[in-house]
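Figure caption, in words: inputs first, then the predicted bound structure.
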Amino acid sequence: MDGHTCQAEGCPLTAEGISCWFTCLMANKEEKWNENISGRFYVDRQCIDCDLCRETAPRFFTRYEEGGYSFVHKQPTTEEEAQLCIEAIEGCPVEAIGKDGEE
Ligand code: SF4
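Bound structure (iron/sulfur cluster present):
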């Protein structure tokens, strides 16, 4: 069986052009929720509504009550703000937060 070569940003296999057989857990901008405000950061459909990003960076992440998931409601504008969003990425247990959305 052949693996596939995905385009996941930051994946060491992608960087080496190596194919794999796993379902990638990295956030995927093609799967992001429509509620995300456009920009670099987003939450995708893997979100399990654990609340961590909203606790870490409430100015940027909020809950879509009807759907039971998080989304980015404001994009950071300074390096300090971006760092908070990166902290949220690092804390997300299912890697549902991406930073490769449109600039
Ligand atoms: S930390 Fe990840 S799983 Fe938890 S609410 Fe935020 S995006 Fe969803």
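The two ends are 37 Å apart (CA to CA).
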